[in-house]
Structure formats: structure tokens, C-alpha cells
């Protein structure tokens, strides 16, 4: 018998090494390398193809093709993120923390499609059929014609799906529970996850079904094992949220058939996930309008404008090294805004404890939030509540200028739609200026700072005289 070659795969990041070592060179984790026999594993596919010797067809790029056929669920928030429905013959990965609502979301979309007469198969590797049924009944979906299977062996799943008419949608919940006879490793290891995902993506291409794989994210935010799965599938969506809040965000991070920066917003209720068509209203729902330190940021998520409350608390610090606590924003970005306030606007703020919170548990990563953050900070520092009907957006430069940002028109329209009366921002284009809102444009951050401070209960502390 030929000696089968082996290599070692890190179970944390998927890196391959030719010899065993205690610590993975790629990700630095200890004791994560597991031996994998190559001939029986992933390498077998291409080798077999080579043995056939069949050449591939070369075709011109300019050929005619139909646009991708899609199965539209009718759940607008989900269809928006997939780019208009699940693409037939494609594989999609839905990742997220355990307990965030992935199974609920997919069961609801499965029922929606089954109710439209599509053939939908839901394979649960985590829950027994009775558990899935119970959940469906609780969600009021007990009558939907979804076909269920509780199975974890890939070969059996493939045989089941090939038996009978081809399904339109197959949901595999979850990829970490699958195992295949083709490799020796234990279920849940990178090798098993990768080989199983490969078999299922092949099934998608072959059968024309849309295959949805559910993947749990580990503590470091990667889908366990599945960096490897991410590049294999056609689209990757993340389901995010904060377990202490009801809303959940479905975010596209890769999509071969559509834009990636779209989000869908849902709220987890006792009747399952409900779509939130107007997220700005949800995020501003509990706003304390008269409190100092609160500013409304007119943000963008993909092509979608979103109004979000930013709260700041600036408090005198008893500590030598003051505290900085940021939730929902980048803390180095906060340091930058603080440094600009201090050096360019003459505001002595750095010696205080500073807490910054994006309300509702949302995460913002747009630099356009700078101006809203600065406004909230100055408002808290001086005790001046900002006008309740104002929204803020603009990027702050290191020189203390306020830079214009993209999609100003969309942000302004959203503010108007939600009943806001004024906007504070950098320079706007002429087209954006006449919008019925009261517009205040600042070229310099210091101008906004002195305007807010003029309304304040406390004067802005002057910087200490320079001693160097
Ligand atoms: P689930 O879909 O099982 O999460 P995942 O598949 O991502 O692990 O959702 C689990 C959580 O959702 C659970 O903590 C309870 C909550 N939930 C509701 O609040 N309402 C509901 O109707 C359902 C079905 C679940
Ligand atoms: Mg689940």
C-alpha cells in the first residue's frame, strides 16, 4: 500500500504545516495542530480530475448568459442583504454568535419560501426534529411545508437530497456539526468542516439548489474553522446583535452576486424575528432629548441611511490615567477627536474620564461620525444640551477642519423623513443645501465648539499653558 502523506492543520485558523508543532506559526494559538491524511482528504478531488485527463472548455468572456436565477423569500430585509433573494446553484454562509437567532431567521425564511410552493429542505444537525417542530409551532409556522431532517453525516445528506425532486433551497444548520466518511478527523475540526462545506457547495452547483450553511462564530469573531469556508462559498452574511438588545443586524460581508455593504435589520420578539423597515425610528426610540452629551448622527450602512444616537459622558477623573470606555465605535478614532479638540480648538478635555456609547448596541465604523462624537463630547463637557431636532455628520481632519462626506443627500432626506429640522455638517454641495432643513455648515471644528459652548452651563476649560 502506498504510504499516504500527511500534514498538520491548525484548528483555529486553518493554516497548514508540514510538521507538528506546539504553537501555530500563523495565529499563535497553542495545541491547535491536528494531523490530516492528504490522499483521502481535500486533495483527492483535483487528483481524480487530473487522472481523467478531460480538458476544460474554453469559452469567450463575451458570451450570452441569463442573469442568476433567484429564490425570493419575500422577507425584504433578508432579500436586501442577499442582493434580491438566494441565488440558485450558489452556496451562502450565515455566521453569527451562538444564540443570536440564525436558526430562527433561516426557519422563518424556509417557511416563507415553502408557503410560496418552493421545495425547501431544512437539515438540522443541532436540534432533533421534535425541537425544530416545536420552534416552528411557537413561531406560528407549524403548517409550512418545509421538509425536515435531523442528520449530520454528509454522505447521508447528499443521498437524501439526490433522492426526489431537486430542492430550491437547502439549509444546513450547522456546518460545525457535519462529518464525512472521507476524512478521519473528528467532527467540528477544520478538516471536517472544510470537506463537508466543499461537498455541499458542489451539491449547490450540481443540483441548482441554493444551499445555506449556518456557521457559529468563535470567540475571536471567526467562524470556527471556516475562514476556509468563507472563500469557498459565494456569499457570506453575518448575523450580529447584542444579546441585551432586541434588534439584530444581518450584514453582507461577501457576495459574488450583489453588493456587500447592505444590512437588514430585525427585532427578536417572542414571535420570532420581525423585520424593521424603519431602523432609524428604532434606534432613536428611547432618546433622552434634553440630556447633555447626546447627539444624533446621520450615518450610512451600505446604501441605507441610518440615524443613530451617540452618547458621551465627560466626567472629572480621580485617576492619574483617565478612563476611556467606548462602546460601538473605534477607540483610536476617539483619541484622535480628543487630540484635535485639545490642540486645534483649545479645549482641555483629555484629563477627564470619557465614556462614549453608540445607543442600541450598534457598531459604527464611518469617519463621518467624528462630528457627532465631537458635538456629544463638548455638549457633555459644558452641560449644554444639543438642539433636539438636529443631526450631525462630517469627518474631522487632523488640522481641525470639517470635511464633507459621501451621500450627504441621502442622510439629509432620512433626517427630514424622521422629523428633524436642522443639520450640522461640513460644506455641502449646492444640490444638498436646499432641502427644507436648517443647515449649519462648519469649515472649522472650533467654530462648532464655541457655538455649543456658548449655550453651556460650564465654560470650556482652557488648555494649560504650554511648558515645552
Ligand atoms: P436561535 O435561532 O436558536 O439562535 P442560533 O441558531 O443563532 O444559535 O435563537 C436563539 C435565541 O432566540 C434564544 O435565546 C431565544 C430567542 N428567541 C426569541 O426570543 N423568540 C423566538 O421566537 C425564538 C424562536 C427564539
Ligand atoms: Mg441554531
Automatic annotation (TrEMBL):
InterPro entries: AAA+_ATPase, DNA_repair_RadA, P-loop_NTPase, RecA_ATP-bd, Ribosomal_Su5_D2-typ_SF, Ribsml_uS5_D2-typ_fold_subgr, Rubredoxin_2. This is DNA repair protein RadA. Residues 353-468 are annotated as: Lon-protease-like. It comes from Devosia chinhatensis. Plays a role in repairing double-strand DNA breaks, probably involving stabilizing or processing branched DNA or blocked replication forks. A motif (RadA KNRFG motif) lies at residues 254-258. PANTHER family: DNA REPAIR PROTEIN RADA, DNA REPAIR PROTEIN RADA-LIKE PROTEIN. Residues 67-217 form the RecA family profile domain. Pfam families: AAA_25 (PF13481), Zn_ribbon_LapB (PF18073). The keyword Transmembrane does not apply. It comes from the Bacteria. Belongs to the RecA family. RadA subfamily. ATP binds at residues 96-103. One of its GO terms (cellular component) is cytosol. The keyword Nucleotide-binding applies. Transmembrane segments: none annotated. The middle region has homology to RecA with ATPase motifs including the RadA KNRFG motif, while the C-terminus is homologous to Lon protease. GO terms for molecular function: ATP binding; ATP-dependent DNA damage sensor activity; damaged DNA binding; hydrolase activity; zinc ion binding. GO terms for biological process: recombinational repair. Keywords: ATP-binding, DNA damage, DNA repair, DNA-binding, Hydrolase, Metal-binding, Nucleotide-binding, Stress response, Zinc, Zinc-finger.
Amino acid at each position: 500500500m502506498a504510504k499516504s502523506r500527511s500534514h498538520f492543520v491548525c484548528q483555529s485558523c486553518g493554516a497548514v504545516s508540514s510538521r507538528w508543532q506546539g504553537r501555530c506559526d500563523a495565529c499563535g494559538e497553542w495545541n491547535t495542530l491536528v494531523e490530516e491524511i492528504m490522499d483521502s482528504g481535500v486533495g483527492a478531488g483535483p487528483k481524480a480530475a487530473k487522472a481523467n485527463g478531460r480538458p476544460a472548455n474554453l469559452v469567450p468572456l463575451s458570451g450570452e448568459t441569463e442573469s442568476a436565477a433567484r429564490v425570493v423569500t419575500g422577507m425584504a430585509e433578508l432579500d436586501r442583504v442577499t442582493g434580491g433573494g438566494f441565488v440558485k446553484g450558489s452556496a451562502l454562509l450565515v455566521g453569527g454568535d451562538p444564540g443570536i437567532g440564525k436558526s430562527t431567521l433561516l426557519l422563518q425564511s424556509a417557511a416563507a419560501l415553502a408557503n410560496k410552493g418552493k421545495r425547501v429542505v431544512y437539515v438540522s444537525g443541532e436540534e432533533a426534529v421534535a425541537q425544530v417542530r416545536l420552534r416552528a409551532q411557537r413561531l406560528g409556522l407549524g403548517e409550512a411545508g418545509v421538509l425536515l431532517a435531523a442528520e449530520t453525516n454528509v454522505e447521508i445528506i447528499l443521498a437524501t437530497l439526490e433522492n426526489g425532486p431537486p430542492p430550491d433551497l437547502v439549509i444546513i444548520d450547522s456546518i460545525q456539526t457535519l462529518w464525512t466518511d472521507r476524512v478521519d478527523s473528528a467532527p467540528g475540526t477544520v478538516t471536517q468542516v472544510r470537506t463537508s462545506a466543499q461537498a455541499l457547495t458542489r451539491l449547490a452547483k450540481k443540483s441548482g439548489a441554493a444551499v445555506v450553511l449556518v456557521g457559529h462564530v468563535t470567540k475571536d469573531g471567526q467562524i470556527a474553522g471556516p475562514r476556509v469556508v468563507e472563500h469557498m462559498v459565494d456569499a457570506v452574511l453575518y448575523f450580529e446583535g447584542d444579546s441585551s438588545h432586541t434588534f439584530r443586524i444581518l450584514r453582507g460581508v461577501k457576495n459574488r452576486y450583489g453588493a456587500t455593504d447592505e444590512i437588514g435589520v430585525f427585532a427578536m420578539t417572542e414571535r420570532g424575528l420581525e423585520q424593521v423597515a424603519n431602523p432609524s425610528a428604532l434606534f432613536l426610540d428611547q432618546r433622552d432629548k434634553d440630556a447633555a452629551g447626546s447627539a444624533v448622527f446621520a450615518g450610512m450602512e451600505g446604501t441605507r441611511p441610518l440615524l443613530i444616537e451617540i452618547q458621551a459622558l465627560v466626567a472629572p477623573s480621580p485617576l492619574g490615567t483617565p478612563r476611556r470606555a467606548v462602546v460601538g465605535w473605534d477607540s483610536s478614532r476617539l483619541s484622535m477627536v480628543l487630540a484635535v479638540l485639545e490642540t486645534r480648538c483649545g479645549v482641555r478635555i483629555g484629563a477627564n474620564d470619557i465614556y462614549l456609547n453608540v445607543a442600541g448596541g450598534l457598531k459604527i465604523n464611518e469617519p463621518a461620525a467624528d462630528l457627532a462624537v465631537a458635538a456629544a463630547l463638548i455638549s457633555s463637557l459644558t452641560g449644554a444640551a444639543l438642539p433636539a431636532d438636529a443631526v450631525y455628520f462630517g469627518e474631522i481632519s487632523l488640522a481641525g477642519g470639517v470635511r464633507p462626506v459621501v451621500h450627504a443627500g441621502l442622510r439629509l432626506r432620512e433626517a427630514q423623513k424622521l422629523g428633524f429640522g436642522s443639520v450640522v455638517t461640513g460644506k455641502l454641495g449646492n444640490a444638498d443645501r436646499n432641502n427644507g432643513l436648517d443647515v449649519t455648515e462648519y469649515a472649522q471644528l472650533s467654530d462648532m465648539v464655541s457655538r455649543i459652548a456658548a449655550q453651556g452651563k460650564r465654560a470650556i476649560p482652557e488648555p494649560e499653558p504650554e511648558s515645552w
